[in-house]
Amino acid sequence: MEYSQTQSGNLLVVGAVISMLLGKFGITLVPDEVVMLLTAIGVCLSWYGRYKQGDVTFGGFKKN
Asked: Alpha helices, DSSP H only, in 2-56?
């Protein structure tokens, strides 16, 4: 199964959020710095995938 850039970015962000939630219960999967990096990469991938498809402008605003 192949994922688009937008889906891959969203999956990275969801994984980072799950890791942060587990950290609240004392379960550390990866260090916080890695979670922040994965979140940033996921947001950028998701935005770039939507921009490449023409769904959003360069500034991130939705096109009509």
From this structure: 5-24, 32-53
Task: Classify residue 56 by its DSSP letter.
Answer: B
pLDDT(32) > 90? no
What domain range is 35 assigned to? 30-54
Residue 63 is given by DSSP the state P
Which residues partner with 56 through β-bridges? 62
Residue 31 φ/ψ, nearest 5 degrees:
-65, 155
Q: Are 9 and 43 in contact (CB under 8 A)?
A: yes
Question: Does any domain span residue 23?
Answer: no
pTM of the complete model beyond 0.85: no
